[in-house]
Specification:
It comes from Bracon brevicornis. Residues 32-300 form the Aldehyde dehydrogenase domain. One of its GO terms (molecular function) is glutamate-5-semialdehyde dehydrogenase activity. It holds the Pfam family Aldedh. By secondary structure, the chain is an alpha/beta fold. The protein has three domains: 1-31, no CATH class; 37-245, Aldehyde Dehydrogenase, Chain A, domain 1 (3-Layer(aba) Sandwich); 259-315, Aldehyde Dehydrogenase, Chain A, domain 2 (3-Layer(aba) Sandwich), CATH 3.40.309. The chain is built from twelve helices and ten strands. The chain has helices spanning 13-18, 37-53, 56-72, 74-90, 95-101, 105-121, 161-172, 185-199, 214-220, 236-245, 269-280, 303-315, and strands spanning 3-5, 25-27, 129-136, 139-144, 150-155, 175-179, 208-210, 229-233, 260-263, 292-295. The chain has a four-stranded parallel beta sheet with strand order 7-6-5-8. It has a two-stranded antiparallel ribbon with strand order 1-2. Helix 4 runs antiparallel to helix 8 (185-199), helix 6 packs parallel to helix 7 (161-172) and helix 7 (161-172) packs parallel to helix 8. It is globular and about 80 Å long. The N and C termini lie far apart (54 Å).
């Protein structure tokens, strides 16, 4: 049984409570140990300040530690991912989404390599002087890179996005709240443990946290005092939905994908064929996989067009 105690004289109080607004005091019995979402958001703000106080080499060390954990805990990660895949297949998840959901040893290896590259580039992300302008004698104006604060990143289907985004947040000294798709629940829960483990030695484990339920997203979108920027990463429907719901927090979102490849009449055709294959066949479910191939009309009568068609058919 759950109970809400509120001021009954407030206009439409009951209707507002039933629609999910945070009015009054909510009492319920729960067996979970999860913190209220406003506390999680407050902790991310405090943790972001701790990240900002770290030296660049300390942030790089945390990222490299996470890269190491992706390799040393590979068996545990794949075990959690197998649970997600099993449940997704039972619910009839679309094949492209299953491909994005799946983690493999090669994906984890590539992910680990990518994180090390982020670590190497993290030394100049914060405090870098972009521009200097002399205003007057002994008076100089500088444009310097600083962290944004606390980010809310919402992503779909791809658990490998979690360590990628977490590493970028560490690199730029931003606090981070993550909301992944429910189909990747087991994978995301284990991966966030690794993220927190990599930050623990520096006292910044709370800087990055996972938001677990859809209801909490509605609350987060109204927490302009705790969140500085929302980044939805997924379908255009997701992006539009978040943009419409967020009234006071800026949203950095993308529009429809326009992943085109154009082969000109003067192109190196051997290289062009390899580019076409790599951009579509290597990972067709990727967000940046080629969607449209444009070929100059003069190439339609030659062997190149036939070679492209044969290659695409062979790759399935």
């Amino acid at each position: 049984v759950s109970v809400v105690i509120c001021n009954g004289t407030q206009e439409q109080a009951i209707k507002s409570i039933m629609s999910g607004r945070k009015i009054g005091t909510f009492f319920t019995e729960t067996s979970t140990s999860s913190q209220p979402i406003d506390i999680v958001a407050e902790n991310a703000r405090v943790g972001s300040r701790q990240l900002q106080s770290l030296k660049p080499d300390e942030r790089a060390t945390a990222i490299n530690t996470l890269a190491d954990l992706l390799q040393s805990r590979q068996a545990e990660i794949l075990s959690a991912n197998a649970k997600d895949l099993e449940e997704a297949e039972k619910t009839g998840l679309a094949k492209p989404l299953l491909s994005r959901l799946s983690l493999t040893p090669s994906k984890l290896q590539s992910l680990s390599t990518g994180l090390r590259q982020i670590a190497d580039s993290s030394y100049s992300n914060v405090g870098r002087v972009l521009r200097r302008t002399k205003i007057a004698e002994d008076l100089e104006l500088k444009q310097i890179t600083v962290p944004i604060g606390v980010l809310l990143v919402i992503f779909e289907s791809r658990p490998d996005s979690l360590p990628q985004v977490a590493a970028l947040a560490m690199s730029s000294a931003n606090g981070l709240l993550l909301k992944g798709g429910k189909e990747a629940m087991h994978s995301n829960r284990y991966l966030i443990e690794l993220v927190k483990e990599s930050l623990q030695p520096f006292g910044a484990a709370n800087a990055i946290s996972l938001v677990s339920t859809r209801e909490e997203i509605g609350d987060l979108l109204s927490m302009e005092n705790h969140i500085d920027l929302i980044i939805p990463r997924g379908s255009s429907d997701l992006v539009r939905s978040i943009q419409e719901q967020s009234k006071h927090i800026p949203v950095l979102g993308h529009a429809e994908g326009i992943c085109h490849v154009y082969v000109d009449k003067d192109a190196n055709l051997d290289k062009a064929l390899k580019i076409v294959r790599d951009s579509k066949c290597d990972y067709p479910a990727a967000c940046n996989a080629m969607e449209t191939l444009l070929i100059h009309e003069s190439l339609l009568q030659g062997s190149f067009f036939t070679d492209v068609c044969n290659m695409l058919q062979k790759e399935g």
